[in-house]
Amino acid sequence: MTNLILLGPPGAGKGTQAKRLETKYGLVQLSTGDMLRAAVAAGTETGKQAKEIMERGDLVPDNIIIAMIAERIDQPDVSSGFILDGFPRTTAQAQALDGLLKFKGRKLDHVIELKVDDEALVERVSGRFSCAKCGASYHDSFNRPKKENVCDVCGATEFKRRADDNAETVRQRLSAYHAQTAPLLPYYEAQGILRSLDGMAEIDSITDSMEKVLG
Ligand code: ADP
Ligand code: ADP
Ligand code: ZN
User: Fold this and answer.
1) Which of 92, 83, 72 is nearest to 111 (CA)?
2) Which residues does a 6 A CB cutoff place in the pocket of ligand 1?
3) Mean pLDDT taken over the chain
């Protein structure tokens, strides 16, 4: 069983890599962004509270996020190991996660940071789209489906773009990353579990590096 965090700014490639590791290692991807978008779409209380905050590119309050993760991590499918994608994003979230895992007698094995320049991130996020059925991530220039308009993974032909994936909101999300999430790097460095990878490399080569870390 492996428990892993993918850490990095919006557009770093966390979701893209998480999907690959999920299949290869039988881990479950836990994306708080995906959970929040599902809550917004379903019109739940959490979704109503999160919608405008997400559209602005700010962080949703810690108590909402921590409650969501605490509930998800208790579900049986997660017992074989997880890949956290987009969580934790603040020191309070990281501390809450440590507490949750300790209570369950589990631990984090690796925190993998993907380092990418801010300018490249704006370009990546602005060109991002995904499969409406399976969520596989694509890019207008860097990662198009092999067959035009057909998902490589599941064969679906519907795609979608996120409301917050525009250049203006991305800049706000990047500043939230630098101010609130970057402090987690020394936090995990001190625990001796941080590995930093070059997120500017090719998608396949990053997957190879991750597989070396996971063994
Ligand atoms: P995150 O989950 O970290 O926000 P994504 O995995 O959704 O990032 O990737 C953002 C966009 O950049 C997507 O359109 C994806 O196809 C593309 N992308 C991901 N990794 C790379 C890479 N190494 N090089 C170029 N483009 C990438
Ligand atoms: P990306 O990796 O491209 O930044 P996400 O899908 O992880 O995008 O997050 C989208 C938005 O959802 C964030 O900008 C933020 O508003 C909200 N969000 C997701 N995860 C968290 C979290 N752990 N804490 C606070 N807000 C979050
Ligand atoms: Zn698909």
Assistant:
1) 83
2) 8, 10-16, 124, 127-128, 137-139, 142-143, 202-203, 206
3) 96
